[in-house]
Amino acid sequence: MKYDAVIVGSGPAGSVTAYYAAKAGAKVLIMERRAEVGSPVLCGEGISKQIDVFEMLRDSKRWIANKMDGAHVFSPDGTCVTLAAERAGNETGYVIYRDIFDQTLAQKAVAAGADLMVNAQVMSLLKNKEKIIGVQATQFNKNLEINADIVVGADGVESKIGSWAGIPTTVKPIDLETCAQYTMSNVDVDRAYCNFYLGNEIAPGGYVWVFPKGKDVANVGIGILANMSEGGQAKQLLDKFIASHPELNKGKPFRFLAGAVPVALPIETVRDNLLLVGDAARQVDPITGGGLTTSLQAGQIAGETIGQAVEQQRFDQDFLSVYEKRWKEAFLRKLKRNYMVKEIFLDFDDKTINMLADSLKDYNFDEINTLGLVKALVAKHPTLLMKLKPFLKLYGK
Amino acid sequence: MGKPKAKVDPTKCLACGGCISVCPQQAIAWIASKAVVTPVLCISCAICIRTCPVGAIHGDEVL
Asked: Which of B51, B57, B58 to mutate to test the interface with A (most CBs of A within 10 A)?
């Protein structure tokens, strides 16, 4: 079997890459390690309204579970800051059924001409001397050798494709959120708002989220930084949080999942005959841990690049670097800035976060501008000025 | 007696991939949709044990 491109992983990054490559005339194969595309879900399932306009998602909205008006952010002492959806960053807009979402994208890719295999685990890269010429995989106990001019690693945070091609992929514990989540029924939360709970006791280096999925159903999850974690701590802290919240503790979970989210700076994404996309490329917002919108953007660019590569029969790193150049133009600045914000925020103790929330709780975010925001913050709690100095440097640029 | 090597309890592993992504030795891989440690590659750093959100990894004494 010979393909122009074999795409390892059928998450959003993989399927979008396949769709745009196939649309451009490339012969592509998606290989999914698991038995079902989109399952098990490994996601908080929040996404920005931006995706409304995304071509592959326009004609079916079956993946929308709930439309959000905005977000409530709670400081450790319970002070609530309300953000309208447009201001709440990547992760409020919709709460989705991530399994249906992923399957919608995979079906679109197949409709555009991509091949798809499930239960197909890639074991290694096929190489001719040093040159990557495809993948070796197993499916239903059979060995497969699949030749391809381009291998795309869309194989998640735990990507092996990158490391097999010589790209350092190990995530530092300080750059990884380790997550656990219940989907619960019989909870009593305002279904119009996504909720974020901050605090070093609640979720060290991360946050707890409550994303309503319907009338009395919500995803209740936690992410904590792996370098601040002990084995099993994510689940323990989540259980503790739920037990202490009356709107949640009568709820019953009908789904439990664990996850890992890179909150790192992006890594190299191109080698001869190889691309990385999505979580495998760390294309994730380091503040929220959201990676859906960036993965869709990067996947489209990767797919278009593959189309051009096939047309010109150029598969070298130099040619494929168009992909890296374009996705960096699209969102690298934001990822870098948010990584720095993450690092600054990690130094904040609970008292500082409480002061911030107290200053912001009555702030009108419709009129947001940096100077006005800083004035509002400092007017109420002058000592915040020192704490906010790194932010001023960052946003003053 | 060597240091304890990381071992994944397959009945607890929810296949999030966190341990695989942080392992500095590339010693953990998917086998039948569970994370599995290759003991000869493990350097007993315990990063995976601390990372696991559900406590599915523990140190296993190697005699």
From this structure: B51
**How many residues does the structure list for chain B?**
63
Interface test mutation site (partner B, options A171, A208, A238, A267, max chain B beta carbons within 10 A): A171
Q: Please name the helix (run of DSSP H) or strand (run of DSSP E) that holds residue A144, with its range, or none.
A: strand A142-153
Q: Return the bridge partners of A221, or none.
A: A181, A209
ipTM, two decimals, is 0.94
Domain A64-94+173-262 falls in which CATH fold?
Answer: D-Amino Acid Oxidase; Chain A, domain 2 (3.30.9)
Helix A12-23 and helix A98-111, axial crossing angle in degrees, nearest 10 = 20
Q: Taking CA atoms, what residue in A is nearest to B18?
A: A260
| Cα R_g (chain B), whole angstroms | 10
* Cα A206 from Cα A224, distance rounded (Å): 5
Give chain A positions within 8 Å (CB) of B22.
Answer: 170-173, 176, 226
Q: What is the pTM of this model?
A: 0.94
Distance CA(A92)–CA(A143), nearest Å, equals 43
> Going by C-beta distance under 8 Å and a sequence separation of 6 or more, which residues neighbour residue A53?
none
Query: Can you tell me the distance from the alpha carbon of A29 to that of A144, in angstroms, rounded to the nearest whole number?
Result: 13
CB-closest option in A34, A42, A159 to B16? A42
Q: How many domains is chain B partitioned into structurally?
A: 1
Which CATH fold would you assign to the domain A2-61+98-171+266-341?
Answer: FAD/NAD(P)-binding domain (3.50.50)
pLDDT tens column, A87-131: 555 456 899 999 999 999 999 999 999 999 999 999 999 999 999
Asked if pLDDT for residue A37 goes beyond 90, the answer is yes
Paired with B57 in beta bridges are B8
Q: Calculate helix-pair angle for A350-360, A384-396, nearest 10 degrees.
A: 70
Q: Do B52 and A231 touch (CB under 8 A)?
A: yes
Query: Is A157 in contact with B30 (Cβ distance < 8 A)?
Result: no
Nearest alpha-carbon partner for A225 in A171, A183, A271: A171
Distance between CA atoms of residues A258 and A329, nearest Å:
32
Give the distance from residue B63's alpha carbon to the nearest chain A alpha carbon, in angstroms. 23
Q: Cis peptide leading into A40, omega within 30 of 0?
A: yes
A261 → chain B, closest CA residue: B18
